[in-house]
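Internal ticket #5521
Category: modeling
Description: The requester needs a full-assembly model to guide mutagenesis choices. All entity lines are attached below as received. Residue total reported by intake: 434.
Assigned to: D.W.
Attached entities:
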Amino acid sequence: MSRASETAYEKIRNFILQGEAQPGMQLTEEKLSDIAGVSRTPVRDAVQRLENELLLVRSASKRLSVANWSDGEIDEMFTLRAMLERHAAERAAKRMDADSLDQLREINGVLKSAVNRSEPDIGAFLNANRQFHDLILNCAQSPRLSKLLPALVEQPVVRRTAHQYSVKDLAQSGKDHDELIAAFAAQDENWAGAIMTSHIRRAFHTFSETTNNGGKR
Amino acid sequence: MSRASETAYEKIRNFILQGEAQPGMQLTEEKLSDIAGVSRTPVRDAVQRLENELLLVRSASKRLSVANWSDGEIDEMFTLRAMLERHAAERAAKRMDADSLDQLREINGVLKSAVNRSEPDIGAFLNANRQFHDLILNCAQSPRLSKLLPALVEQPVVRRTAHQYSVKDLAQSGKDHDELIAAFAAQDENWAGAIMTSHIRRAFHTFSETTNNGGKR
DNA sequence: TCACTTCCTATTGTATACAATTACCAAAGG
DNA sequence: CCTTTGGTAATTGTATACAATAGGAAGTGA
């Protein structure tokens, strides 16, 4: 995307995710253009994107506010994400080529080395994890899916959990990826789909525990 | 949404769906603002929405063009739609109240009366059908789902099939709705989900036949 | 005190002018 | 004949001014 529009998106997004904005907080386009340092025009572009990702919501009278997720809605989000990522994994398993497999292995290596050290590097972990899932999504070769999924991934979760992962959770993620790679190598779509499903379920479980929302499904 | 922005959305959408625009055709924001009769500002809003629905696509250099779906992509769209609508039906089955049930019955009545006449009223049928599915989506009470699904429904299909439905297909749709209503009344989520899945599959099959794309899955 | 009306203000929506980017084409050089 | 390079026109991106609309506070009457 264009420069101002993109920086607006990123700055507003960080503003929301990294704690400066309270859920439910009212915002105006002008405040956001101050934050982003650009005029309202690109801000409006960014806002529309963030509305699609449901990070921002508009009241009946067009007023903007920061989304405020209920536990039930977060649960639902993980459920949908599990459905769609499973589907992506299934498609990817049928379409995976040797090059992509190698890349997956490499990314997974980075991910593990970020975890296997005295002080795990959460940033590097999250980054590699994202790359891993993005690559699978690409291999699925579905433009629709590529539009739908990113709006579901990560966002409302990052702020609350980024510094709360346990080493055990991080290690489990690496193991899941190992299994996924094996499933892709075997071109076994059912296996890949099943692993992906439980992978996301685990992510939800981790989320529920670290945020003490009861972990009910 | 706002007036100009909304009319722009509708006019451009009609322009695409009702045959004036060829798939792959290049467009400019200025042409679109001529079509819509408003300035570029609201047009850009509308374009962003239509990009999300994948009716418009942007080339690497930001040029706009009308989407051109391959058979495989349309297939994929129906698959995703089936997944999400099934999920919506399952949730709706657990949350359906007496009022909504009555409304569903009423809408279904309208739908059938649009079909059971010497000259079926396709417009009325499509309208009632849409209302039916929208109501189910509302009952599912999932903001995420309500964002994701509408971008998948109907669009790239309407133009090619609107006047091609057979009376048999239309009648089958009414029967599916009967079964869905029964499943909702019984609050049987598995039943509702199963019916919805085959309902969408049938829609895809009908689509494939009437467009002679081979109907391969 | 409560409801209702009426302003004023804050906020969003739209148009337009201008800046920046990109494509297109023609001319030059190999 | 092909490729490259420059310039120009077309197109998208951004800022700003203004219009329209919604919210809220102050005032009025019962």
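Resolution: model delivered.
Comment from assignee: Chain A has two domains: 3-66, 71-211.
Ticket closed.
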